[in-house]
């Protein structure tokens, strides 16, 4: 049978409380017994001083016979009085330990008894004797016995003893045990009640967390755990809520991703299948075959680009893509890429600006940075207006090189700016212009730049221009930066529209009347 954490915790706590009470009771009894014995010793020591004075007062030294003469009747009377008052036995022995005077309960007797030499030796060495016991059979039950040596004129005349029953200790301890047991039971009951309800209160959020985690495992991320404290359990609840929120977002993104991929794959595959079926069944006449096969080829290339981009993204997100960093002149990379689009540039009669600079050396993966530059220039050439311009800028600051790629044209709206780096996102205008794109280019650019430890920002003024500025680590070489001015500019980050100076520290944000910009959200 599975035992819940409630019963484990409750049982452990109850056991600890019971063990603590037992240990505390044992220590208390030991200390109480020691205290009682010490108090009894002090009391008997005071009685001994009185008895000692009485004995000395009733003893005389006979110099002629060189012995001490004791007034036995006076001493016996005094011993009897002390014995009745303290309920004790008082007896006197000679120097050999043989009892000479014995008084107990008001009766006088002189039994033939000799105190053990070991007891006398302790008195001679320590000055006194105190112990509990039967004194080698003298008593029928246990007594506390206190003894001292009696001296007169420097000569030992014998030993004086006082003995009291030790049953008082047993009675004392019995009463103390009764009081302790009553207190312990009350404390134990109170502890059990408090522990029971506190354990229930502590375990309740854990049970709620377990139920919520079970729903999370089934794919339901809507449950949230109420946070009622800021301790470790409260922090765990907050962590689970944050995890549920993150998983919900990831699940939403996953579903959106699958839907987008399915849509992007379905469109070209439908076109390819339709045109090929038309050629095979004769619906498309032979003289049109070349035209439609060219369309099939373009759609196939589109599928290939989509698959390649998705594979690259998958490798980046899985951490499997390793950078091959090396010094790279990014100006040469841009020039080589521009030659690829030479035909489109000539057709639109574009003006190329900002490439009359020295070498700009960065520390990056040449192939991946070429893909970044290619995607950004492809977008710039695709959406630039006829007779417009492409402008490039470079700046090195804080160990990072900032590269700006700007194109004139209609620009982006404030609503479109924050979403340009989303997967499969295409603006309404770009859907009419870009027939072959799948909306993964800028998301791939953002991922590659992030893999290099850089950042990217887009800024735009509708009807004027759009500019992307990305940063990559600089190589340990001097560069020739080009810095342009700024007027009043506005950007967009996760908090909304703000001045570009706050939105990003990237350079090359040129003078405009009003400008919006955005950095991609970290994912």
Q: What's the gist of this structure?
A:
The protein has 523 residues and is of the alpha+beta class.
What string gives the helices and strands in order?
HEEHEEEHEEEHHHEHHEEHEEHHEEEEHE
Q: What is the alpha-carbon Rg in Å?
A: 52 Å
The CATH topology label of the largest domain is: Heat Shock Protein 90
For CATH, the homologous superfamily of the largest domain is named as Histidine kinase-like ATPase, C-terminal domain
Total domain count: 3
In total, the number of strands is 18
Residue windows where pLDDT falls under 50 for at least 5 positions: 106-110, 428-438, 478-514
| Helix content range | 40-55%
- How does the overall form come out from the CA principal axes? rod-shaped
**How would you write the strand order of the largest sheet?**
5-4-3-8-7-6
Structural class: alpha+beta
End-to-end separation in angstroms reads 45 Å
